[in-house]
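Q: Structure tokens for this one, please.
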Amino acid sequence: MIKTTAYITNISDWGIVNEVYNQFFGEHKPARSILPVSDLHLGCLIELEAIASLPDH
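A: Here is the predicted structure, written as tokens:
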């Protein structure tokens, strides 16, 4: 994983998003952005975008 962008509808959720993110990625820390937004499609509270690449063989 190279980079993630999380869009959250409630800035107060920043801490819990950070906690879950750290649990999921562990020691691997891809670059990331967390952006507060007014609302998301279908009433979702978070949307996560990820960019990844495969290792060279």
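A few notes: The mean pLDDT is 91. Residues 10-49 form one domain.
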